[in-house]
Prior knowledge:
alpha/beta; FAD/NAD(P)-binding domain; 2 domains; 5-stranded parallel sheet; 26 strands
Amino acid sequence: MKKNKIIVIGGGYAGLRAIEKLAKNPQNEIILFDKQSYHFMQTDVYDLIANEEDFAQVSVDLFTFCLGFDGNVAFVKEEVMQVDFENKKVISNTQRYQYDQLIIAVGARTKHVESVKGLRTHAHGIKVLHRAMYFKQKFEMALYKKVQLSGTTCHPMNIVVAGGGLSGVEIAAQMASFAKEFYKKNNFMCRRLNIVLINSGAQILQGLDAKLVQKSDKRLQNLGVRICHNTKVAEITEESVTLSTGEKLPIDFMVFAGGIEPNALVCELNLEKNQKGYIITNEYLQVPQYPEVYAIGDCTTIYDGDVVVSPTADVAEQMAEHCAKNIENLLQNKELLPHKIKSRGILIALGRRYAVGRIFGVYIGGYFAFITKKIVEKLYAKMLDRRSHLGCRKIFEQN
């Protein structure tokens, strides 16, 4: 029987979950493309920064992950440059790959506003692993320098976080919590820490549940985080940030979490896109012009009625599962199913051992919410690790 060739572009949450489902059918021959050799668990990045997890715990090797299946999944570490949709070919730096079905799951990237002078030079993002690692090192070195100066001078550490969305709120809370605990445990004389969260809207976490917004705001205040609402970053230098209000803030370093935009490949693809540049899909998660092409995860936008479904890891995985189901239905000559994806809940990390959230309509907070979040993250990591360990075992057996 002829093999069904499926190409998946992107080794993020959506791409890996789609592979897990599709690989169960031995007639599917799957190739995963990613320019990185690892999957980065972005939901764990805050623990990485706070030294609660290391590099190995927030990443999974894609080579061994793909080897962990029954011989029908391969990984190609190459950047996809373009797709020839008419001839069903994915084009990399080295060659062209034929497909029967294509899944685009390339995610999104940090949006850098070009009008903000100095943004790319002096601000740090955390959506990709190498930037998160660099930021972690900068944060630790800043703490170390303050320790060296303890007892001689007591200049505060000044951190500015731009972006009042989920990433900005979580990183501000985690840094404030970690630094306060660090100073307390080590009894340093100089414990001054200034964290300023710059939020362009009237409230943080725009579009999220009002009760969660209120709890998150209160937690940030308790941690000593200053929030500047209705404010934007105008200019950044090595030593300061100038705000749209005219205020100038001193900085040791700055984190930019001011939103996301489509991945570079999405911009190059000759597909219909919405006003923000994301790929348009139908109710089956197909690209309308090419029914054999699917877009899932952060590179597309889906709706629950008239409301945009927030792009979370949970939503990306639901999209992957539905996409895989529709591909299997297509192969079995069954009807395609329209998606009914909606957010099943959200958990917001707000510093060490503290979180707030809503799961299936139930509000939780404090240490219980923190433990719930950790369980969800550990279960996900364990699933990937198990597959990767199978791949490692195959390599050892071959040698």
